[in-house]
Design brief:
This protein has helices at residues 16-27, 39-46, 63-77, 100-128, 149-169, 204-216, 225-237, 249-274; strands at residues 7-10, 31-36, 53-57, 82-85, 131-136, 174-181, 244-247. By secondary structure, it is an alpha/beta fold.
């Protein structure tokens, strides 16, 4: 199959990473289903690509809308080759400051919506014997920091789910890539970012500087969404796509610090941790065997 024959299904295509990806895909001559809640923005992206772009209003948290969008995509183009789960929403605040309904809303959008949409598309990909799922998480899907607990909870969940999915669908010709951007010039730090319903003074020494950093740089972040979109396409085009596609020097630096600290702690506690087995018990490896 040539690139021009492929069909992308992109959520969150009205802004940020999703819009940049949609524009890049269409500029290459590929076909794309563009979805988001703001249909007017989608139509502006699709306007000059008649016959190759289908704009659909979609709230990804609505099960009925998800099903209808997938049906419309198949009816229009006959297939879905790349599902790009880009839609999401950030949040900033101490975990105790967020009400339970807010935490559930974060998980509903950042995890369940992507998981359920993927489950709807998988039967089509299985019939084709091919496909690629791009799940946009964040460096916050690999590293959790104070102030981002609610956001990272959903992203961590999506990463764990995606890792299992990759193992399950690889024999079926379907590939899965987790995309982990750092600080990019999107709406993440704008008004759409979820704020907690209450503020507790005890957490202000930690949260206030993060708020100043995050909200003070809105619109001036170093990361370029257009370059991120180009790298996502390169990963899809690759014969050996990455399981994880981290983007941004800030993301790599943060992750490197986490891994270094984690290994130091593991080394300190490893001998005692390994000594918790019954005496004489046989250790069985977790996961795949060497032969597998």
């Amino acid at each position: 199959m040539t690139a021009n024959d492929r069909v992308w299904f992109i959520t969150g295509a009205s802004s940020g990473f999703g819009k940049s990806l949609a524009e890049a895909v269409l500029a290459r001559g590929e076909r794309a289903v563009l979805t988001a809640r703001r249909i007017d923005r989608l139509e502006a992206v699709a306007r000059n690509h008649q016959g190759r772009a289908l704009a659909l209003a979609l709230d990804v948290t609505d099960a009925g809308q998800r099903g209808r969008a997938v049906e419309a995509a198949i009816a229009q183009f006959g297939r879905i080759d790349i599902l790009a789960n880009i839609a999401g929403r950030g949040s900033l605040g101490a975990v105790e400051e967020f009400e339970p309904k807010q935490l559930r809303a974060q998980l509903e959008l950042n995890f369940f919506a992507a998981a359920e949409l993927t489950r709807l598309v998988l039967p089509q990909m299985r019939r084709q014997g091919s496909g690629h799922v791009l799940n946009l998480t964040s460096v916050g899907g690999a590293v959790s920091l104070g102030g981002f607990g609610a956001y990272c909870a959903g992203k961590f969940a999506l990463e764990a789910w995606s890792d299992a999915l990759r193992d399950e669908v690889a024999p079926l010709g379907i590939r899965v890539t987790i995309v982990e951007p750092g600080n990019f010039r999107t709406e993440f730090a704008g008004d759409v970012n979820m704020r907690p319903e209450r503020h507790l003074d005890v957490y202000r020494p930690l949260i206030a500087p993060i708020e100043e950093f995050l909200y003070g740089q809105a619109g001036t972040q170093a990361g370029d969404p257009a370059k991120a979109a180009a790298l996502m396409i390169e990963a899809v085009d690759s014969a050996n796509p990455p399981a994880r596609l981290m983007m941004g020097k800030d993301a790599f630096d943060l992750y490197d610090r986490l891994i270094s600290a984690r290994h130091k702690e593991f080394d300190e506690w490893r001998a005692r941790g390994e000594a918790t087995a019954f005496d004489g018990a046989e250790m069985l490896r977790i996961g795949k065997t060497e032969a597998a």
